[in-house]
Write a structure and sequence with these properties.
This protein has 398 residues and is an alpha+beta fold. It folds into 3 domains: 83 residues, Beta Barrel (Elongation Factor Tu (Ef-tu), domain 3); 148 residues, Threonyl-tRNA Synthetase, Chain A, domain 2 (2-Layer Sandwich); 119 residues, Diaminopimelate Epimerase, Chain A, domain 1. It is built from 8 helices and 21 strands. The chain has a 6-stranded antiparallel beta barrel with strand order 2-3-7-6-5-8. Strands 16-17-18-19-21-20 form a 6-stranded mixed beta sheet, sandwiched between helices. A hairpin with a 4-residue loop joins strand 9 and strand 10. Helix 2 packs across helix 3, helix 5 crosses helix 6 and helix 7 crosses helix 8. The radius of gyration is 35 Å and the shape is elongated. It starts with a strand and ends with a helix.
Amino acid sequence: MTEKIYLENPYLRQIEARITEKKYMNNKYYIKTNKTIFYPNLAGGQPGDKGTINGVEVLDTYEDGIDIVHVVKENIHSDRVQLFIDWNNRFDYMQQHSGQHLLSSVFYKLFNGETIGFYIGKEYVYIDIDIPKITEEEIEKIEEFANKIIFSNFSIKSYIVEREDMDKLPVRKDPIVNSNIRIVEIDGIDFSPCCGTHLRNTGEIGMIKIRKVESYKGNIRVEFVCGNRALKDYTWKSKSIKDISNLLSSKDKDAYNRVEKLYTAKENLEKENRLLKEKLNKYIAADLIRKSETINGINLIFNKSIDMEFKELQSLLPYVNLIENTIVLFGVEGKDTGQFILSRSQNLQINMKEIFEEISQDMEIRGGGSPQTIQGGCPIDMLDKTLKAFYDRVIENL
């Protein structure tokens, strides 16, 4: 049996221990010790500790019955070993986990919202609360209440109880074990069955900042950060606001209003631009018709040198196709390849896709489309020959 020192003293950063079992599998060593300070990965949902055994990096830790297994890449030859954990990593997870207990308790106390799921990641933490929706004002109330508890520096303690004593405690959820139930208590405020590592008092949580609330499977998902993560979150956001304020030559508190005005102006300009492009495309389409070749009552627009990008031609095409009895063949020389568009108005019955498939059997072209419109590319030195082949085949079909 591995003695789990992390439950008794989660602040212990190093200990001496004795290896009781070692196995070599899959190019790794699996080591059990008589005692450990390493928290097993995802036990109770909490990520495991980082650290070393005799200077060798611990890759993973997990529970194996009543033992803890440490996975390392290199062999450790001594039976007597020194275990070191990454304290910053441990303290971070303690802040997040204790903060999660506190925040879940506040949701339950203020809105009778039970935590039905939680996740502690490397960047953020979230809890799923079984209420369908919540307002911004209510979230602010929860956040304020939780941080008041933090600033009041209530003690956090853990102890073992048996199943018959559970009725004496106002626990938020039922334990998953029937004996030796570990309770984490926030000084009469919250009682939760938990096997994780926790702080000594709420003050060490530092602060809780709710980052985002969204609907999730009929409930709400609350994303938040605690302690040092909250400080880092505030730091980058503060810098972003400062940079935006400097860019706009405004005070930080006025940044949102300035950005909102700029966004509204941008939307208006984009709307005006769309209307102008629409007018321009109609004008260009009409001009192309005036300059087109007429064969058997069909307007044939054949243009390779038109001064437009390929994407602009694609946006122009619907306006040309609105004009009945029209066939258009555009070619554009790109940096490395030639591009083409072959299309017709809706009232014509020529199958452009069949024409493309016939020509592609004899020429190095690629592309595709529909019976009305095809587009594709070819080697740049083959563009003229490709356009000529399309032109000739269209004429044959008129």
